[in-house]
Write a structure and sequence with these properties.
alpha/beta, about 475 residues, globular, 5-stranded antiparallel β-sheet, single chain
Length: about 475
């Protein structure tokens, strides 16, 4: 009997240990993005405490490019969130919203109708972004079973046949959390600009294609969910360039929704009010950039606060992620501004005010003999003149300058910038080319002067550097 019990215990222990190992391995291999890279709105949702989100935006990339919850937070104090996924289809909108409603109780949900124009995904990675990003649960199973291509359902349910192929593409953020996927509120912020047609997003096709049975069923399911969960439902259409056949479907939706007491915001009919500029406000013909998103978001904020009451959550410590997301927004905004500055003094003035970055400063060689007046620029970092004369290497973080390495042969300093990046600085005569190493990559200077390396503490990477001779 004892032997049987011992064997049973050993088998049980093996099963438990195997399950733990597989769970850890899956956490490394799992699909981690909903927009590209490692940015995931669903991970951001899972990192949000229960009952904090008051306003939700559902949709595709048009949504995460076009609506910035950060601005609604800064200007209105609204705790908004984009649960947006690249090419989010109808079924994904429904089931991902149900996933959010497990822990959140929004007052208003704004649903973009891009998904009614498509019956399947054209890019396989978007299938994975929509169907593998949620945690395994009865809701995620129902989501996958609703997926149209039945031959893929088994692999999507099992997950391992898909994610095991990621071994070769694993990077640092597969092993450690990606901070924007914790603090972010669902938006993708970019100032990249591409001029588009003047009437981008506007299609004058008047053909009406009646809604398909599947689209009608989806609309009714969304309405039923809003009544069941007691939130106000608004449908929306964010501008994007579309063909006549898709406009005909949208026209059919407009006709159908007239019979329902549900608001519909068609932003393509509000071009004058929004003042979207074809030259400056698009990142491509499908998506607004930050300038366009600012205009659309502010209009939306005015509309929503005129129609509904939202509590002002600013100042509440429970909403720290919204504060952090706003700081990130301003960091990216200032970095964008920095990229267009040519005057060196203005450049340094902006640089020293940007939150969430670390500057690594290096003074080597006969920099004091330069006719450029290098100390004038070094002093922007509050560097003492005597320290400047001695040279060396410094870290500048949160307005504080710390010297970490003297210009004495053999001097060396090593520190962890974060959980994935190690900084090593040292001084050797005759300019060692690898006198500054970040995770083994060399950023060292080989000339007389001041070098400034700018490291993004959130993205955990070098984003720019400056040389002053």
């Amino acid at each position: 009997m004892r032997q049987i019990i011992a064997r049973a215990a050993a088998v049980l222990g093996f099963i438990v240990l195997t399950a733990i190992c597989l769970h850890k391995i899956y956490d490394v291999l799992r699909w981690k993005d909903t927009t590209g890279g490692y940015l995931s709105s669903i991970d951001q949702l899972y990192h949000t405490d229960e009952g904090l989100i008051d306003l939700v935006f559902m949709g595709s990339s048009h949504c995460y490019y076009g609506i910035y919850p950060e601005l609604l937070w800064e200007e209105k104090g609204i705790a908004g969130f984009d649960l947006a996924v690249s090419a989010q289809d109808k079924d994904s909108t429904y089931y991902q919203l149900k996933e959010l409603l497990k822990t959140q109780h929004p007052r208003v949900v704004v649903v973009d109708i891009y998904g009614i124009c498509h019956e399947k995904h054209l890019v396989e990675s978007n299938v994975y972004r929509n169907y593998l990003s949620m945690k395994f649960s009865p809701n995620s199973i129902s989501h996958i079973l609703a997926y149209g291509e039945r031959e893929k359902q088994k692999d999507l349910l099992a997950r391992w046949p898909i994610v095991h192929t990621r071994y070769r593409e694993l990077k640092e953020f597969d092993f450690v959390p990606y901070e924007p996927s914790i603090i972010g509120r669902g938006s993708l912020i970019t100032w990249n600009t591409s001029a588009v047609e003047e009437a981008n997003g506007i299609n004058l096709c008047e053909t009406v294609q009646p809604l398909s049975e599947k689209n009608r069923e989806w609309v009714q399911n969304m309405i039923a969910l809003s009544r069941e969960e007691n939130f106000e439902l608004i449908f929306s259409l964010i501008p994007w360039k579309r063909e006549d056949e898709k406009q005909a479907i949208i026209n059919g939706f407009k006709e159908y929704i007239r019979g329902e007491e549900i608001a519909f915001l068609d932003f393509t009919e509000l071009t004058d009010e929004l003042d979207i500029c074809s030259e400056t406000d698009w990142t491509d013909p499908e998506h607004l950039n930050a300038r366009g998103a600012q205009k659309l978001t502010r209009y939306l904020g005015e509309y929503l606060t005129a129609q509904y009451e939202f509590p002002d959550r600013r100042g509440d410590a429970k909403y720290c992620q919204w504060d952090e997301a706003l700081e990130r927004y301003h960091q990216l905004e200032m970095l964008e501004q920095l990229s267009h500055v040519t005057d060196l003094e203005e450049y340094l003035s902006i640089l020293t005010e940007i939150p969430g970055i670390t500057c690594i400063l290096s003074l080597e060689g006969a920099y004091a003999d330069s006719s450029t007046g290098i100390y004038t620029y070094a002093s922007a970092f509050h560097m003492d003149y005597q320290d400047y004369l001695l040279g060396g290497k410094w870290l500048y973080q949160d307005g504080q300058l710390t010297k970490v390495c003297e210009n004495i042969p053999g001097s060396e300093f090593i520190c962890d910038l974060n959980e994935i990046a190690t900084l090593r600085v040292r001084f050797e005569q005759n300019f060692a080319g690898d006198n500054i190493l970040i995770n083994g990559a060399s950023y060292g200077n080989t000339w007389d002067g001041l070098q400034i390396i700018v490291y993004d503490d959130i993205e955990k990477k070098v984003i720019t550097f400056k040389e002053i001779h």
